[in-house]
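It would be a great kindness if you could assist me with a short task in structural biology. The matter concerns a single protein, recorded as an amino acid sequence and a row of backbone structure tokens. Could you please explain, in whatever detail you think fit, how the structure tokens follow from the sequence? Thank you for your consideration; the sequence and its tokens are set out here:
___
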Amino acid sequence: MTPSQQAAERLRTAEQLKTACAPIRSLIGDTSVEDAYGVQFINTHHRVQQGARIVGKKIGLTSKKVQAQLGVDQPDFGVLFDDMQIVNGGTLTFSALMQPKAEAEIAFVLKKSLPQVDCTLEEVAAAIDYAVAAIEIVGSRIADWDIKITDTIADNASASHFVLGTVQKSIETIDLIACEMQLFHNGVLASEGSGAACLGSPLIATHWLAQKMASLKLPLQAGDIILSGALGPMIQLKPGDRLLATVEGLGQVTVEID
């Protein structure tokens, strides 16, 4: 097997056994983003072959502070599959998770595809059907979250699960930059921020993703769910936790960890 194939298998085994593995950079190095996406694509293909359905993308590393920690100057992306979505107000079993953390953000659902590499911010905005509040559960197959950029990209941008709110709003009716987010953990405010924390605006992050995916000849499609990036710090999770996030103009979204 090639190093990329070995890395992909290491991650699949970690997921199957729910046992965190050694960093992937020991196989593919810690600088080649291209090689890391190659590992991600191997496992995406494997999941699709096993019957999983792709429903969208997630954007990670939208915080300049986190980018600096990992030594990069741009976000990354991961794939959302149908079995990652939890209904608003639903329950997620802790045993299904790996080193889980949670963050609140804005999600977009597209009504138009975005095939152009040079698509404009205005074209991306026009392609969005509606926005909703969202909670993303992130997780790492890498032991102790010991990650560099190649580790998290290979690990599907540390994606795990997500929950979408039910208040659907046109983006013209909300302030994507100034909107305030609050994430409550067992009834206590644990994280807060605003749209500006996501690369200056969740729309800017989505514009980056649209151009990136078109450049890879994997353009965003009508109907795709886009998790645009955290609006505040992540929080760690444990069994019995209750999460409630509010995003100004988009209502609330909740989930429990069983």
In short: The chain is about 25% helix and 30% strand.
